[in-house]
Give the backbone structure.
Amino acid sequence: MPLTRQDVEKVALLARLTLTDAEAEAMTSQLAGIVDYVDQLAQADVEGVEPMAQAVESANVFQQDEVRAGLPREFALRNAPRHSDAGYLVPAVLGD
Amino acid sequence: MSPTELTAARQLELLASGDSSAEELVSNHLALIDSVDGSVGAFLRVDHQGALAHARAIDGRRARGERLGALAGLPVAVKDILCQTGERVTCASRMLEGFTSPYDATVVAKLRAADAVLIGRTNMDEFAMGGSTENSAFQPTRNPWDLERSPGGSSGGAAACVAARMAPLSIGTDTGGSIRQPAGLCGVVGLKPTYGRVSRFGLVAFASSLDQVGPLARTTEGAAMLLDAITGHDPFDSTSLALPPTAAAANLAKPLENLRIGVVAEHYAEGLDAEVEAAVRAAIRQYQSLGAEVVDVSLPNSKYAVATYYVIAPCEASSNLARYDGIHYGRRADESAIAAALAAERKAALDAGDQAAADAVEPALVRLYRQSRSEAFGPEVKRRIMLGAYALSAGYYDAYYLKALKVRRLIRQDFDAAFQKCDLIVGPTTAGPASKLGSFDDDPLGMYLLDLYTVSANLAGLPAMSLPCGKTKSGLPIGLHLIAPPLEEERLLRGARMYEAAAGQFVEKPACC
Amino acid sequence: MSDYTTIIGLEVHVQLATASKLFCPCSTAYGAEPNTQTCPVCIGMPGSLPVMNGEAVRLAVRTGLALNCTIANETKWDRKQYYYPDLPKGYQISQYDQPICEGGYVEIFDAKNRFEPKRVRLTRAHLEEDAGKSVHDDAPGGPAGGGRGDSMIDLNRTGTPLLEIVSEPDLRSSAEAKAYLSELKLLLTYLGVSDCNMQEGSLRVDANVNLHLGTPDGRVATPIVEIKNMNSFRAVERAIDYEAGRQQRVWRETGRKLGDAPKQTRGWDDAAGKTIAQREKEESSDYRYFPDPDLTPVRLPAEEVEAARAELDRLPATLRAELRAEHGLSQYDADVLVNQGLPVVDYFFATAASAGDGKAAANWVTQDVLRVLKQSEESIESFNVPAAELAGLIKKLAAGEIPKPRGREVFDSMVERGGGVHAAMDELGIAEIDESELVGLAKELLAANPKIVADLRAGKQQAAGALIGQAKKKNPNIDPARFRQLCLELAADA
Ligand SMILES: [Mg+2]
Ligand SMILES: [Zn+2]
């Protein structure tokens, strides 16, 4: 299925990006080209093949349930674009 | 002769023998950076004072007879994607321009424990996405062998600084070839370890299931020393292998016996530069002259590797980069301007009598997210985020992501079968030598295809490296690519060392320095 | 229009009682100053990586087994992606297609018989990390606040382990919903896997509600509404009842059926007593789940699961059955005891075993012991009448050594003085009367009252009342019932 400008607009919202008209046009044709290339995967015969999500397939890596000190608050907040002494500040969150 | 001309191992000998001090060594490198990096652009930031102070401290400890780490006093450059306490970590992105890490990556902590001197932070493609280092938000890096050309990428700064003698060793990261490809194009040695060999803790993630940290050096010996310093199990990374550090340097000089070299028919298809092919075939003959047997092997699914990679990597990247939203850290768009714009949009809709349009104006928070991210990310990062979000969105998951994961296993199975017949796979690192800057400005797919020979090792999690194997007539380096079975870094390096020793060390220096 | 059924499914998020968070070593303790329990991992700082807390997995398995779920052989972690300021990574680590627990059920009943006992099926239970909190800042407006002020984000709670328990839409009334929640909470408390404190957010409930209506054209369903923000079980009941009424009204007004409108989310406003529509996010359903490449899967071998199952005993349903079958308790008494928690049940078992009388022990524990605990706001662990002493009281009452009417007086004295039954009797001047003394007294009074003896022998048992009255004057400690019995026997033999 060819990738359309509408797909690009929808995905841009999902990915929290804003594209100008020109960017959206360019993005549509570039992504369409890449998707077209990637579509060759359809030809691969994967009948009975298990997906491989990780390069090393281990399991059960746990840590103990032990509390260790984290970051002092001033270090946690230091990189925040806007913050009070106590926390990160954002425009009012509605409906929460 | 300046000690910067020497390999990492010789520099360490100078320090051990007392013929040079760490302060002197670091000063020499800093001086070279000051004179050369203006034209190369390998470093984003150089820590003159910190590096010198650290070097002096190490000299003091050496004078007092204290026990020192394996890299004591040696300058090491770090790609600007590994966290370092109190240091800016930008990933060459406007998004993280002002970000200071409150913690050390495990690799950085290991470098400190080895008493390496962290000399500066190297340039890269933004968030490691790209193959030319031109996607850096701050500056391009130029290839020291031809300043009109790209050093490759994404670890372009890491490769260029070693090639131009500005640092004997540097740390890069490799998701689809980002260490090996620039190493090949800059005429240095670069190694991507087995997935899980080196901790990813503190490595800013691009594609988590593919990313690995690895060494760059002028010789296999330097790469082995640096690898030994950064490997080992890390409880802070769930995907870190529960194995002790490698000890590859110790056995490096021992040639491999009964070596079987695998040559992949699929590598020599259309698109491979004739000079590159000739150099690689000469290297294979060199191995034969050393007694190695050449075996033909087949990787039938490698034709899907780039497509597989450009599904999996963007899917993971789109998710890994969701955290950059300007809320808890990173760049935030101008909130007052957004508030004013939203009010104006609402008013315009109401003035036109369009209540529905007024209600549809997005909430301030959504606009803040979208605007912050759009202002702060470059075009290649946006493209990959979009591609990944698209491939994971409703209705496409099975056709793209799930399918790619299955093909990934086929690619791994091809390698498992090939390594039944051979010990190392040898081929070209790249299809051609370094490209002119700007070659791929409007051709993202063309740029993606540069990863043809390198991505498979990431998909399969295998150790692989590039080492110099000659130059083109126009003087551009050519890289030889070696792949080994999982955990066989020592075999990989010993095999590379056999060729390096026989072919003569690549001692020539680029014209720029 | 009155022909309708309310269809309810509940999603319950339970905070698991670990000391540290699900993927980092930060504390999960409630009530700390904002942003003082965070680290690079739970802030989602660049380069940080999660590592699983094994205890959370253990608690989830334990809970799943107690809920009769099937425990997955292999379970994995997925990223659920959406943007919100309290979600610093831009995704929540959760479980999508391989939850740790599948199926299962909770059995509910109503002690007051308002509904038939039933089995409420579970869809699944999965582990996930909690998000942070948005706190509205009352300080004057920030630059983008449009005069509404800012929100402050507190990430202390971010990364706390949650088990999300999802029921099938098997509930049919707010009373059933309440019973389900109470039973679930009781079970989780018995398991020790959560403190279930709703005020502190360690138990949160969302309800999916719609109606099945009988119409001339057959049964139709109204659109499903998800209700959020209910802060007590009472609020859940009220919200469901309100929503059932609201959906009837909307149906009458619009005739809108399931499928005509997307699933709506409504918030419960407890003060106003109604649900209020929440703003929809247009792309909210596209979470782009995919396996988290930073974490390894969890494999749970059958032996480990069976070992965990073997550790599960003494859960509410088992205990109720045991109380009824082995101690002859009524459904009501068994329920009262079990609802008090395991320590009270254990106290009962100890009392019953020592007294040899379950029924009497149940009466004392459910009435007198619980009354005292409630008044003194004490727990059974600090209650100062040991089970053996309460059993002693029960035995002495049965033996007539303490007059039945004075039992409660003795008990209250034991509670007050913290002493045993003997000390209380001494305090109250209740001497133990031995049988020979009692027989002597009966003989003496019978000899002095031949008329009464004749009446008794003629079958007029009420005549014994006068003898009891005289006996009590001579010795207030006699047990009237025992004394009456004795008189009847002696008169018959005379
Ligand atoms: Mg949930
Ligand atoms: Zn934390």
Q: What stands out?
A: Residues 141-147 of chain C have pLDDT under 50 and may be disordered. The pocket of zinc ion (ligand 2) is lined by residues A 70; C 21, 24, 26, 38-39, 41-42, 159 (CB under 6 Å).
